[in-house]
């Protein structure tokens, strides 16, 4: 009897813990848009046409054999705050450039970029694209990309229940391995701080 | 460079530490108590425990001249511990906050202290003689999130605060009757209470872990969770600053920073060791670690016999003991403070962290 009473008293007295006090308070973060914490977007919105233009320039540089110039071009004009389509196009451009660069050229190129003016910022942007690319390719292998019923993205990049990767799966797998090797090289040059900045930064590519 | 002085106090995290001016007393925040250590020979011995908080103590500070200790805790209270012949006597301070208190520091004048809190405000507390108690005034606008850290300007009126809304701000905490009218500075001329003299954030907007004014008070540095430190040089009141310099590093984020003169900053954090930054108005860069690697005792590998090696392989599956970090601190450093100074320069500084160690470094 006494145990039961103590128990109910404990539950009663703990009930206040489940109250969502943030909802009751006017100026709590739950009640305002956290976007207002950040300064207004400094860069103008990137339109799809801009991205296409950049893509054409980058392809031309790639054809001319200037992979470093192409990579720099992509990273110096990150697609912050554009439409979904524009940002996806920018991501594809970056992945295209990354895939065209030989493994032996990666580290020296990254070092040159990091050593240049605004180099740390450039590699942060590259890291953002790498993570975005990983998320995109892993969701593509997780479910059939063109069917409307998408499966939830697998954070690990591997899926146990998805269909066996077909021809498209192989290409995304290749893209993933390119991204992983770039990830390793970027961390080598820009350090772990780079990963931390990608996570804290509110400017998403 | 002389070897650092290392004391392993206990196996608990140290939230904050503070030395008395004569270096004889060390106050350490451990769980819900404040522990006072005094130096006996080469070791720190527990002398007293100040029990008054019933939740984790988040920050403590000893006033260098009066010897008063102020502590604050997640139980939303701050206590001022007055030294008396019978021991320390606590006085409760009415902070009027309904979230945890996170950080407390005495003003250089020692007539006020500032408490940062999770209630999105800073309580500036001062003693009211006629009522014989500590009262607080709130710095509220435009803070949008938990205040993680505060730092005082040498004039005891300006107060810098870092917050999880990624801003470092400079406020006026002028209180009539307590403060003398301050000299105009680059931060502001007329300074009624809660004047916002500056609001800064860096590009990637990590939340702010630590702020500090330079010894002259004419520059502000803050460390944020994006592994960067940012130095702000104000130009004139209500004008954009002369320079805002951000240094992104390859390291993990810094938790605490101090100025050494006007041209050097020492910062430490999740990398478990302290680093130096050098520079001025024209630019700053990372100039290296404070710790010299390959110290005797840890760096050099002992000569192992073959028998011992195989025994280790058999017992542990490996020959080398790799459970130790190469740094003196074995976990995140959460607080560094100047220990010995000459003028504006720091000659020694102390650091504490999650590993329960206090280390005194020679710069």
Query: Could you say how many structural domains of chain B there are in total?
Result: 1
- The succession of helices and strands of chain B, N to C, reads EEEEEEEEEEEEEEEEEEEEEEEEEHEEE
| Oligomer designation | heterodimer
Content-based structural category of chain A: mainly alpha
Number of helices of chain B: 1
N to C succession of SSEs of chain A: HHHHHHHH
**How far is the N terminus from the C terminus of chain A?**
62 Å
| Largest interface, counted by CB within 8 Å of the partner chain's CB | A-B, 20 and 23 residues
GO biological process, one term (chain B): Arp2/3 complex-mediated actin nucleation
Family (chain B): Belongs to the WD repeat ARPC1 family.
Keywords (chain B): Actin-binding, Cytoplasm, Cytoskeleton, Repeat, WD repeat
Organism (chain B): Parathielavia hyrcaniae
Provide an overview of this structure.
Chain A: Residues 140-156 have a biased composition (Low complexity). Chain A: Its main location: cytoplasm. With 205 residues, chain A is an all-alpha fold. Chain A has helices spanning 2-14, 21-24, 48-63, 67-76, 84-100, 103-115, 119-142, 167-200. Chain A is elongated, with a radius of gyration of 23 Å. The termini of chain A are far apart. Chain B is mainly beta. Chain B has one domain: Methylamine Dehydrogenase, Chain H, CATH 2.130.10. Chain B has a four-stranded antiparallel beta sheet with strand order 1-28-27-26, with no helix packed on it. The termini of chain B are close together. Mean pLDDT of chain B is 92; it is low at 296-300. Chain A binds chain B through residues 27, 29, 32, 37-39, 120-121, 124, 190-194, 196-197, 200-203, and chain B through 120, 144-145, 165-167, 201, 203-207, 224-228, 248-253.
């Amino acid at each position: 009897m006494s145990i039961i009473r103590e128990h109910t008293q404990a539950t009663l007295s703990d009930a206040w813990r489940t109250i969502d006090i943030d909802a009751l308070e006017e100026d709590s973060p739950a009640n305002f848009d956290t976007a207002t914490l950040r300064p207004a977007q400094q860069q103008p919105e990137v339109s799809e046409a801009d991205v296409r233009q950049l893509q054409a320039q980058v392809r031309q540089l790639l054809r001319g054999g200037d992979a470093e110039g192409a990579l720099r071009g992509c990273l110096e004009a990150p697609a912050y705050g554009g439409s979904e389509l524009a940002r996806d196009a920018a991501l594809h451009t970056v992945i295209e450039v990354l895939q065209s660069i030989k493994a032996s050229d990666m580290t020296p190129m990254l070092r040159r970029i990091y050593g240049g003016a605004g180099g740390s910022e450039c590699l942060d942007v590259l890291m953002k694209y790498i993570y975005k690319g990983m998320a995109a390719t892993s969701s593509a292998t997780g479910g059939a990309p063109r069917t409307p019923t998408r499966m939830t993205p697998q954070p690990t990049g591997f899926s146990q229940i998805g269909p066996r990767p077909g021809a498209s799966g192989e290409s995304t797998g290749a893209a993933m391995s390119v991204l992983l090797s770039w990830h390793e090289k970027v961390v080598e040059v820009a350090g772990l701080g780079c990963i931390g900045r990608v996570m804290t930064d509110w400017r998403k590519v | 460079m002389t070897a650092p002085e290392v004391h392993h106090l206990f196996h608990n995290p140290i939230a904050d530490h503070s030395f008395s001016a004569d270096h004889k007393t060390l106050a350490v925040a451990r769980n819900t108590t404040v522990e006072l250590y005094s130096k006996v020979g080469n070791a720190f011995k527990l002398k007293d425990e100040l029990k008054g908080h019933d939740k984790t103590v988040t920050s403590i500070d000893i006033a260098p001249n009066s010897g008063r200790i102020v502590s604050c805790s997640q139980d939303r209270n701050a206590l001022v511990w007055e030294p008396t012949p019978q021991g320390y006597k606590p006085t409760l301070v009415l902070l009027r906050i309904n979230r945890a208190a996170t950080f407390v520091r005495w003003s250089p004048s020692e007539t006020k202290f500032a408490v940062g809190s999770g209630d999105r405000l800073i309580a500036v507390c001062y003693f009211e003689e006629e009522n014989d108690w500590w009262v607080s005034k709130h710095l509220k606008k435009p803070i949008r999130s938990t205040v993680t850290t505060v730092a005082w300007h040498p004039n005891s009126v300006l107060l810098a605060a870092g917050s999880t809304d990624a801003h470092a701000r400079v406020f006026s905490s002028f209180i009539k009757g307590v403060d003398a009218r301050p000299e105009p500075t680059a931060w502001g001329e007329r300074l009624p209470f809660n004047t916002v003299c500056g609001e800064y954030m860096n590009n990637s907007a990590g939340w702010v872990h630590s702020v500090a004014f330079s010894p002259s008070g004419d520059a502000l540095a803050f460390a944020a969770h994006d592994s960067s430190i940012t130095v702000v040089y104000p130009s004139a009141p209500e004008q954009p600053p002369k320079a805002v310099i951000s240094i992104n590093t390859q390291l993990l984020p810094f938790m605490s920073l101090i100025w050494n003169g006007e041209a050097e900053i020492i910062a430490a954090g999740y990398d478990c060791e302290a680093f130096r930054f050098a520079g001025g108005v024209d630019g700053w860069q990372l100039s290296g670690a404070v710790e010299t690697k390959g110290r005797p005792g840890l760096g050099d590998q002992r000569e192992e016999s073959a028998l011992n090696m195989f025994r280790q392989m058999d017992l542990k599956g490996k020959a080398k003991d790799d459970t130790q970090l190469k740094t003196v601190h074995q976990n995140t450093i959460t607080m560094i403070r100047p220990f010995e100074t000459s003028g504006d320069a720091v000659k020694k500084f102390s650091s504490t962290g999650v590993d329960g160690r206090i280390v005194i470094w020679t710069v």
